[in-house]
Fold:
Amino acid sequence: MDDTLMDRLRAAASRFGPLSLFLIPTLAIYLYFAIYPTLSVIGFSMTKWNGISPDKTWVGFDNYTKMFSDRIFWEAFQNTFVWSAVIVVINVGLGLVIAALLSRVWRARLILQTLIVLPVVISPMAVATIWRWMLQPKGVINETLSGIGLDALTRPWLGDPDVVLFALAFAHSWSTIGLSVIIFLAGLQSVDEDLYDAAKIDGATTLQAFRYVTVPALRPVTAVVFILTLTTAFKAFDLIWATTKGGPIRFSEILSTYMYKRGALENQYGYGSAIGVALLVIVSLATLIYLRLQTRPEDR
Amino acid sequence: MAARYLVFGVLALIAFLMTAPSAMTLFTALKPPEELIRPAWTPPTAITFENFGRVWTDGGFRRYFLNTVLISTVDAIVMIVLASMTAYAMVFMSFRGKLALQVLFVVGLMIPVTAIILPLYTTVRSLGLINTHLGVIFADLALAMPVFVFMFSSYFVSIPKALHEAARVDGATELQIYRRVVMPISIPAIITTGLLEFMWSWNDLLLRLVLLPRDGMRTLSVGLLNFQGVQTRDVAGISAGAVIMAIPVILLFLFFQRHFVRGMTAGAVK
Structure:
């Protein structure tokens, strides 16, 4: 046996062996189940295919042309933005206020914080169950409203075209605002205490200190929460699917539910994938901004 | 002083409103049929576990629960192993193409599951893994991998390079250093990864809805969705189902709150 060959093999094994041991299992799974489907969705979007038959026809950009002139797509597009905007306003605005209040409380702070953050870990499916039940015509929301004399406000929340999207956005915010609170709290800890002392000496009220010290100091954190909330809202599916399935009619249809209906339920894989690509582009751009925001403080 | 009480009062009210939906669901799940006509915010006077028993056996939740435990546990354990090994290679080993690999994982951070669910279905189908837990596990691992690779990397970066060097000089192989030196001091990252991956896996609906059409393989999320659609009048049963689904992660959260909070702020991107 050629000794040098064996030595060389052994050297190669000891050089690449450990590395491949550490990387290959992960890469195999990651490339096959994440990267490949991502490339495929772009490929699919240029075909006409029912998802099963071998007969997959290349149609170029036809699906995109169709998508851009599809009234329902634009309705879903618009709904996605309205839904996301409501959620962002609540999670950023109210999230900041709750975090600021929490940071000023010492007694029972952990209990209060735990109760406020707890819904974050509840599955969207369970959240859907809870809110579907509370928002039904004879549900606890309407009962409470009539109980305090606000009968005029009662309505079938999930059946009313004008409010369904807002009611669901509210439910989504209930279950996600805890995350904003946590991130804002972490940000508040890094605000320089001296700034508050200086503001106090200058005679600023608590509210003024919040407006002129806290809010500007938290601007970078706010940007992070903003983008994070936005991307989470854009890619939401579970909550809406488990409550209204996009209804009544299409009043709570967002891009993800529309894509699922067209692609998975009606077997229009090509067209569904084109909608998927639209979703991919929007979410990727938002995440890219988020990543830049998050890494910037370390670069300095 | 008055301001301090006001702040506390406002927070107590917010905390009450945030808790009320879950509390009322729990109340409803514990109520016997004759108490269901009373308002939802009243606690049950006579507690019954009959609703839980009904969905557990007749509703099939026993099966859904076991399926979910299986998938989530395997997900969490395998994720800890794979993500930490990958991060180890990226931090402690030198090789060509490291930057490209990093970029590849950053790309993964930007991919929403929702957008690629159709090709993911055909990919899993091409391996004959539809209706198998293995298919779901592979998809879960692949889609969340970047988050945890970066989580472990940022933890490993803080480990002194000298520690690794010293072990090398002593003649330890990379695998030995990984197992005996690096992993034992990375317990916080391990716990956070395990908890977050377990929770994400436990809570997901879309992937399971698409990849597990057969009833026997279903998880709690799909089981609850289906139960809610079929047994529309069984309010107490549906509530019990939601409670069964929520309780395990709530307990985990209460026990490991610190780890969860750290992980959710760090891995918030998913």
